[in-house]
Design brief:
Number of helices: 12
Mean pLDDT: 95
Number of strands: 6
CATH class of the largest domain: Alpha Beta
Distance between the termini: 22 Å
Oligomer: single chain
CATH topology of the largest domain: Rossmann fold
Strand order of the largest sheet: 2-1-3-4
Low-confidence stretches: none
């Protein structure tokens, strides 16, 4: 399939809220203006949502406020109108019994937040395991132009001369204590080495896997998945994604144009190549279902 960009300029979806002189148009604009927005922000330019899963209860995503600002810079620079909004954030490290139980709830939140508001496109700020698939599911259901920006993995830790993975060594050390190979005091000391910077797990768990899947599917810019959370290139990626989503809206490049069967086959191959999480299968099937892609085996 060859994608053909839409004609630009044209009237966008957000004009249904802002682009007229009726009572309802004035109602929508006047309330938005109480935030100090000038008249020309409502001149028909692309309105871009920054869908943010920032939460202090989701440590993997605790740095996304900064990335949201970088995205905002890129949107303004490309001539868009950025509006940030929060959605339900599922943090695997704090949410009991498991964040997996709430993935679909988060997806519903994202879908209705996008569908019911004056957005022409959306940037999906994600990090922890279930935030990436849930935001992709929600955005795919609405099918407005969307791009993923992940928070990136944290830095490696070190303990007693050994590299420590935040998503693996907790279990290894716990078993070592039971086996008498590590003292309880050493276990507590190792705690400080396991999660030593902002970001998601620095191992190939579900967070890094789904970041890779977003990129392999074509829903994120190339290189997005691997940049550490604290690396300056992560901010650059957010900035460039802000620019890119404005052009995607102008072109009317939607998830349904990107998330083809071929894209999912590419993601499956990528997951095998990186040794990714088996949870990717569950999430890829759910995302595919939102765009009507059949991933059953061909004859």
């Amino acid at each position: 399939m060859v994608f053909k960009p839409a004609h630009w300029p044209r009237k966008l979806r957000s004009a249904e809220w802002f682009g007229g002189t009726s009572r309802d148009h004035i109602y929508h604009r006047s309330w938005m203006k109480n935030q100090g927005l000038p008249d020309d922000m409502f001149d028909g330019r692309p309105v871009i949502g920054i869908c943010n899963t920032w939460s202090q209860l989701t440590p993997c995503n605790g740095h996304l406020r900064d990335l949201a600002e970088r995205v905002r810079h890129g949107i303004y620079e490309a001539g868009g109108f950025p509006v940030e909004f929060p959605v339900f954030s599922t943090g695997e490290s704090t949410l009991r019994p498991t964040a997996m139980m709430f993935r679909n709830l988060a997806s519903m939140d994202v879908e209705e937040a996008i569908r019911g508001t004056p957005l022409d496109g959306v940037v999906l700020l994600v990090g922890c395991d279930k935030t990436t698939p849930s935001l992709l599911m929600g955005a795919a259901s609405v099918d407005l132009p969307a791009i993923v920006v992940t928070g990136g993995p944290m830095l490696n830790g070190w303990f007693q001369g050994e590299r420590v993975g935040s998503g693996t060594h907790l279990w290894k050390f716990s078993e070592a204590v039971k086996a008498g190979e590590m003292t309880q005091e050493e276990f507590l000391e190792a705690e400080a080495a396991m999660s030593r910077s902002p970001g998601s797990c620095n191992t190939m768990g579900t967070a890094s896997t789904m970041a890779s899947m977003a990129e392999a599917l074509g829903m994120a810019l190339s290189g997005n998945a691997a940049i550490p959370a604290v690396d300056s290139r992560r901010r650059v990626m957010a900035h460039l994604s802000g620019r890119r989503i404005v052009q995607m809206v102008k072109d009317d490049l939607k998830p349904s144009d990107i998330l083809t069967r071929q894209a999912f086959e590419n993601a499956v191959r990528t997951n095998g190549a990186i040794g990714g999480s088996t949870n990717a299968v569950i999430h890829l099937l759910a995302i595919a279902g939102r765009v009507g892609v059949d991933l059953s085996l061909e004859d």
